[in-house]
Amino acid sequence: MTPPLDPRHTSALDAPLPSTLGAGDLSITAIWHEHHGYLINVAYRMLGTYGDAEDMVQEAFSRLLRSDRGTIDDVRGWLVVVVSRLCLDQLRSARVRREAYVGPWLPELVIPAGDALGPEERVTLDDSVRTALLVVLERLTPAERVAFILHDIFEYPFDDIGRIMKRTPVACRQLARRGRHRVVREGAEGRGVIDPVEAQRVAERFLAAASTGDVGALLEVLDPEAAGWTDSGGLVPAPRHPVAGREKVAVGLLGWLRSASASLIPISVNAGPGAVVVREGEVVAVLAFTVESGRIAAIRCVANPEKLTYVRAVLGGGGARFPGAGQR
Question: Are 183 and 148 a contacting pair, CB within 8 Å?
Fold first, then answer.
């Protein structure tokens, strides 16, 4: 259980503290390394993008640097308050910006970091970052999302959430409940959920069929009502509307891989089955699969280069080169 917040305190991929945040201050550097990872995990779940989460966390540390730290007993609690309020404001403004977004908007997908990133940089991969859940969270109001995440995922009591959100505990309880009901109602847990081992087997069959161009085998592993979404942000060629039906999904995927001379490399994505798409040794997209009743029901593809920073950093730098990974 997360410790209660002290009510008196509720008013980038490089782990080292940026120089603009006072890297020469040993106390702020220690605070950065102790709490940065936790705050990134809070903000990523609230916003769905690692880059925006990093921006919110850095802004929170900037404000801490300008504050009288001698009056703050619970530094993590103070930072959670600031990050949560910044995320709430960001979610409200993001709704307006996304109306002008080109094509589908999807969460920024993340993969296991291993030793490529320090503990203070990594997104912890568990059920709370599964792609299907993050997609449903996008449909909640900003207040519902923040209340749900703080209570149901990070286990903050409603008294603390009320102080963070400047609402009564009763109001925050209602917000979290509405968010929870919508998550369940809209199927974030999937219909006919199967265990992770079987889901991985289904994904492996799909990737083998896609890699060899076997349309028949691909159709067998796709749900008849399978759908695909591609988030390109208008920066790379991609369908601007969902692709529905397994035939269209299969033909579209194979055509894209063939025209791009790209390869699929299996990897866990957001704690579920997925793959990275590699062209001439460089990661150009990430795929996340939703498996239901033994078949792939949804494919979410993030090809927007601005949302590949985390994955490319994990896989070996900005270009994320894969030696020997070329054509299919």
Answer: yes
Task: Provide the percentage of residues in the chain whose pLDDT is more than 90.
Answer: 75
Pairing assessment for the beta strands 272-279 and 222-231 based on DSSP bridges:
unpaired
| CATH domain 196-314 topology | Nuclear Transport Factor 2; Chain: A, (3.10.450)
DSSP 15: -
- CATH class of this structure's domain 7-185: mainly alpha
More confident residue, 219 or 99: 219
Secondary structure E strands in the chain: 222-231, 243-244, 262-269, 272-279, 282-292, 295-302
Backbone angles phi, psi at 272, to 5 degrees: -140, 180
- Which residue did the predictor score with more confidence, 89 or 192? 89
Residue whose C-alpha is closest to residue 138's, from 189, 104, 103, 177: 104
Whether residue 101 contacts residue 243, with contact meaning beta carbons closer than 8 Å, is answered with: no
Average pLDDT across the chain, whole number: 88
Cα separation, 293 vs 270, whole angstroms: 20
Q: The whole model's pTM is what?
A: 0.88
**Whole-angstrom Cα distance, residue 33 to residue 24?**
14
Q: Mark residue 180 as left, alpha or beta (left: phi above 0; alpha: psi -120 to 50; beta: remaining).
A: alpha
Structure tokens at 168: 């009564």
User: Which residues lie below 8 Å from residue 255, measured CB to CB, with a gap of 6+?
Assistant: none
From CA 142, how far away is CA 40, in angstroms rounded? 18
- Positive/negative CA dihedral, 84, 90, 20, 314: positive
- Enumerate the CATH 1.20.140.160 domain ranges in the chain, comma separated: 7-185
